[in-house]
Amino acid sequence: MTIKLPAVAFRNIFRNLRRSILSAVAIAVSAMSIMALLALLECMETDMAKNLTSFYTGQIRIRNVDYEKYERYNPLHLSVDIASVLPVAESVDGVKAATPRINFPASLYLNEKNNGVLGVGIDFTKDAAFIDFDKLVTEGRIPNAGANEMLMGSILAHELALGVGDKVTMLTTTATRGTNAMTFKITGIASFPVGALSSTTVYVPLDRAQYLLRMEGQAQEILLLTKDGYKEADVAKDVKQALLSQLSLETETKQWKDLNTIYSFLVIAKFIYYIIGAIFFVLGSTVIINTTMMVIYERMREIGTMGALGMQGKELTKLFLLEGSFISIAGSTLGTLIGVGIVFTLSKVGLNFTEVMSGVDMEISSILYPTVNWFTALFVWIYAIIISSLSTLIPSRKASKIEIVEALRYV
User: Fold this and answer.
1) Total domain count for the chain?
2) For the chain (length 411 residues), average pLDDT per consecutive 10?
3) Are residues 226 and 285 in the same domain?
C-alpha cells in the first residue's frame, strides 16, 4: 500500500486541533523555561568569572607560600616583594598584565564610632587592565598616587552619610602587628557591580596603603591576566617555576578557578540543570504520550481499516511517530522563540537582584544581563524535538501491534 505518511500525519493533527495545541503548549512551556534558565545560568557563570578575575583574584594570583595557612590571622608580614617578583612574573610568556594589591581589614572612625570596612591598596594605573574605574566612578575622581585619598563604594558612602570632599580616619593593624591610623579624603564614589564591594570596600593608593600598614615595597599579592590563547593553569605553572628558578622563591601561584569553590559549584549546578531540563521535557512529553494513546483508542477502527488495506505495523509506528514529531517541532519552535524573546528583553532591562543579594557574600553582580546564546537556543530546540518525538514511540509501538480483526470490531 502506497501512502504518503507525512501528509496523512499532518492532516491527522488537525482532526483534533485543541488536543494537538495542548500537546504543543506543554513542549513549548518546557523549552521556554529551560531556555531562560540556561541563559540565566550562563550569565551568572560569565558574570562571576569576570568579577573574580577583575576584583578578587585576577586570572592568576601570586602569594607568599605560607599566606593561605595563616590567612585567618591576616598575616600581612607574609608578603611578596614587588620590585623582584613583578618583573619576573611579567616576563613569563602568556602574561598580559600584572598588578600588586593589598587587602586589609580596617575601621573608619566617624562620629566617635568605628565602622568596619575592607581596605584595598592598589596601583590605579596598573589596575586599569583589571578594573575600569572610569566607568565605575559615579561622583568625583580616582585617587592620585602619593596622596591620602580614597575611593569609596556608593552603598557604604550612603550608609555613613559621606560624600566627595569629606575626610575620614582609617584605623588598622599593621604588618608588624601594631596599630596605625591615617586620615583620607574621599575623592570619588564608585558603584561596583558586586553589592559587597559597594557596601564594604574602600580603595586607596598602593603607596599610601604600604605606608599605613608598614609594608614599604611589599604587596599581599600580585594578580596576573593571561593573553588570549594561553591556558591559565599552564601560565600559572610557568610563573611559579620562573620565580623559583630565578629568585629561589617558593610561592603559592594558582589560577582563579582553583581559588573559588562557589564558582565550581555553579559549574556543577549548570550540569545538574541540564539534567533537570531533560526531566522537564520528559514531563512535558507525557502530554504527547497521553494524547497519542487517546488518539489510538479513538481511531481503532481506522487503524484496523488501514491494516486491512495493507498498511504494515512499521508504517503505523511511523505514522504516529510523525504526528508526535510534528507537534514536537511546533511546540519546541514556539517555546524556543519565546525563550529567546524573554532573554533578549532581559539583556536590555536586566534582572535586578540587589535586594536578594544584599545579605549574600557572593561574587555575582546585583544586576544581571542575560544574553542570547544561539548555540544554547539551537541545543534546546533540537533537544526538545528529540526527547518529545522519542516519547511517542511508546504509544506508536502499541498501535503497530494491534490485531486487524480486533481493531475492526472495536466500537
Assistant:
1) 2
2) 68 75 80 83 84 91 93 91 95 95 92 88 95 94 95 92 94 92 95 88 96 95 94 94 95 89 69 70 64 62 65 72 82 89 87 63 75 84 78 66 58 48
3) no
Judge contact between 125 and 160, C-beta under 8 A. Answer: no
Same domain, residue pair 139 and 216: yes
- Rounded alpha-carbon distances, angstroms, from residue 156 to 198, 345, 371: 6, 31, 30
**Grid cell digits, residue 329:** 517541532
Which three-class secondary structure state does DSSP give residue 38?
A: helix
C-alpha cell at 71: 590567612
Which amino acid, 62? I
295 and 224 together in one domain: no
Per residue in 82-102, is it b (16+ CB within 10 Å) or e — as a string? Answer: beebbebbeebebbebbbbbb
> At 367, which helix (H) or strand (E)?
strand 367-368
Q: Within 10 A of 250 (CB to CB), how many other CB atoms are there?
A: 12
How far apart CA 143 and CA 151 sit, in angstroms, is: 6
State how far the Cα of 249 lies from the Cα of 215, in Å rounded to an integer: 19
| Contact criterion met (CB below 8 Å) for 127 and 99 | yes
The distance in angstroms from the start CA to the end CA of the chain is 25
Strand partners, 173: 179
Cα gap 29→365, rounded to integer Å: 28
What are 179's strand-pairing partners? 173
**Residues 341 and 233 placed together within one structural domain of the fold:** no
Q: How far apart are CA 364 and CA 362, in angstroms?
A: 6
DSSP readout, 153-165? EHHHHHHTT--TT
Question: Considering 212, 238, 259, which residue would you say is the last residue of a domain?
Answer: 259
Segments forming the whole domain that contains residue 95: 58-259
Going by their DSSP bridges, the two strands 179-190 and 149-153 should be labelled as: parallel
| 224: its cell numbers | 596576573
**Distance between CA atoms of 160 and 151, rounded to whole angstroms?**
14
